[in-house]
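Hi W., the ribulose-5-phosphate complex you wanted:
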Amino acid sequence: MTKDELKKIVAYEAVDKFVKSGQKIGLGTGSTAIWAIRRVAEHLKSGKLKNILAVTTSLETEIEAERLGIPLRSLNSNDINGHVDVAIDGADEVSSCLSLVKGGGAALFMEKLVAYNADKFVVVVDESKLVPSIGTGFPVPVEVVPVARAVVARRLKSMRADFTIRVGTGKCGPVITDNGNIIFDVLFKTPVDGPDMERLINSIPGVYENGFFSLVRPIVLVAKSDGAIEHL
Ligand code: 5RP
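Structure:
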């Protein structure tokens, strides 16, 4: 199966198994999560799912969900009140102890806000995302308030981390997040402890959020290359 087919089947499985009528759901961002959005829309259209309210994690997701007619609410609306029943999202890396790296699409802040306030956080990946440890493979995105970029750079260098400021397509300037910030893509010299590093990086003034997702226990669904789906 192609990678895109694997993304589709694992996202469909997440919706079919974990989303029930009447629920409040979080919709993630990226090329895997988008299939979950499409599946929810398909089930709403057929009547298989009813009375769903969704919170989106990026402008990209909001536009697609809006286009497909999924009823949307903000996390602060009275209906949602800062909590969803289930959030479904992709990941850039999943370690053997289920620490995640996310934010390849620069949506980490809202993704974390939703995931950490969900009863169930369901992560959908193909098996290429499974790694023994995190920090040295996929660069960990750190969202930084632009005025603090030198401060954060100094602190990361003192932690012996290398980083680049993410540039947009066409390389004509930095990527600007939905929150008006920039992204440092950070690599460590040796594997790191996800929970420790998640707390440490967020303690640097000027860091808006980081892409370690280690302080919540996800349910991880993995699409294997033969199309089988494993639950971790
Ligand atoms: C966006 C994310 C995505 O979930 C992550 O980058 C995985 O994306 P994809 O499913 O396209 O590989 O964290 O900020």
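The CA atoms of residues 148 and 206 lie 5 Å apart.

W.
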